[in-house]
């Protein structure tokens, strides 16, 4: 059976350290997966990869927007996979994000592997944020303090997520990293919390991590990382 | 240009946690690299991959041995690469391991990438250890307390190493992980320290990490990792 491979370009620690320059095209990224999360050059919003299409969710103080991303656009960070369901079930009763996460973690066959998580459902509440466009060098934890947040009620759509084992915290974010895209393609972002009315949960067990580095990016190559601080930043910001 | 990929089967944290069952054959391992380090089923000594050949260095209290490993043998942990030199130089004057490591780190073009390190030289002193065969479940830090160590003088051979960025400490060991193999194939092991008389240093910059997991191993899947403790164990044992 073919291996399911999570492809990650750059690390979350790099993003936390303020390395926002796009270093891989969306076209190249799509060769490695049809499902995933990330951000766009200059951290201009949240990247959402669903069914092989790539979307960018941005927000200003009072307005939100989702648009398709052309293939030449560069991304500083993304994690994608050819999502392959290895376990699935339906939730028929309302459940909030904390409890749904707990339910999913109990159903993972191991906490030492990566998983893709795809949830199609209807939500009485969906609370997201979009990281605002920023210059390389500003720490993510600072940028994240002033990011627009939006809540929608009674919305149907898909949660796109990666679950990461604790050992890889810093490389990625331990636990869930979830983005949302509404069915009507008008609303999306990085998920803060939600209440799901009902939905279908698909878990995809991942066999291998393909960790790619932006080997030609001078900022990345020369950056001095404070790994412990960056791990804390991820917990504070994600 | 083809990407240079470091293939790692399982993680050093798994090894530290006492997961010693072999889960990948040497035959399969060699498809991913001709150069690297690891250990053998039941942590029965040090695995050394050099020029596409695989050796096992074992030691008892008073005897050491190196033998070639048949292709069907299983390994619990290994990291291999098709070593490709991107920088090389000669050291003509005696230098001890601490200073040689410092010199190499100063010449790495980034501390945020993995590198392979191949050093062919003559050594006035070479001090190694070999992990003794143990049962799955015994913590590596405990096993490592009673491991045989050997020192040879005036020996020529090759240092086989992987250099890992700090962010991946736990996944691998941050900094240098060096094994040694004598030219006469009679002595080798996990390097503690050495004095090199002269030698040729080759550094190979790595573009991507392919992190493989033993997805069919029940012990691995069910293990509860104490990541912080395992990172400390690696520092104490490696």
TrEMBL record, chains A, B:
Q: Does the keyword tRNA processing apply?
A: no
Query: What EC number(s) has UniProt assigned to this enzyme?
Result: 4.1.1.5
Q: What's its top-level EC category?
A: lyase
Pathway given for this chain reads:
Polyol metabolism; (R,R)-butane-2,3-diol biosynthesis; (R,R)-butane-2,3-diol from pyruvate: step 2/3
> Molecular function (GO) terms listed?
acetolactate decarboxylase activity
Listed A to Z, the keywords are: Acetoin biosynthesis, Decarboxylase, Lyase
State whether keyword Glycosyltransferase applies: no
Catalyses which reaction?
(2S)-2-acetolactate + H(+) = (R)-acetoin + CO2
Signal peptide location? none
* Highest taxon, organism lineage: Bacteria
Instruction: List the Pfam families hit by this protein, alphabetically.
Output: AAL_decarboxy
* The family this protein is said to belong to: Belongs to the alpha-acetolactate decarboxylase family.
Q: Which PANTHER family match?
A: ALPHA-ACETOLACTATE DECARBOXYLASE
What this protein is called in its record is: Alpha-acetolactate decarboxylase
Q: Species name for this entry?
A: Streptococcus pacificus
């Amino acid at each position: 059976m073919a291996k399911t491979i999570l492809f990650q370009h750059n690390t979350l620690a790099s993003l936390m350290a303020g390395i926002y320059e796009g270093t891989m095209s969306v076209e190249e990224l799509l060769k490695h997966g049809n499902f995933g999360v990330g951000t766009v050059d200059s951290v201009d919003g949240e990247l959402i990869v669903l069914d092989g299409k790539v979307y960018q969710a941005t927000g200003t103080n009072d307005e939100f927007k989702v648009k398709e991303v052309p293939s030449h656009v560069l991304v500083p960070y993304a994690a994608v996979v050819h999502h392959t369901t290895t376990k699935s079930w339906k939730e028929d009763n309302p459940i909030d994000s904390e409890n749904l996460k707990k339910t999913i973690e109990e159903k993972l066959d191991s906490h030492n592997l990566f998983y893709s998580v795809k949830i199609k459902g209807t939500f009485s509440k969906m609370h997201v944020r979009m990281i605002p466009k920023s210059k390389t060098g500003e720490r993510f934890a600072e940028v994240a303090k002033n990011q627009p947040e939006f809540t929608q009620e009674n919305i149907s759509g898909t949660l796109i997520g990666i679950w990461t084992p604790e050992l890889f915290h810093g490389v990625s974010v331990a636990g869930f990293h979830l983005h949302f895209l509404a069915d009507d393609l008008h609303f999306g972002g990085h998920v803060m919390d939600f209440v799901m009315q009902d939905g279908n949960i698909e878990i995809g067990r991942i066999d291998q991590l393909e960790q790619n580095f932006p080997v030609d990016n001078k900022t990345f190559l020369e950056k001095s990382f404070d790994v412990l601080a960056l791990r804390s930043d991820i917990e504070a910001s994600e």
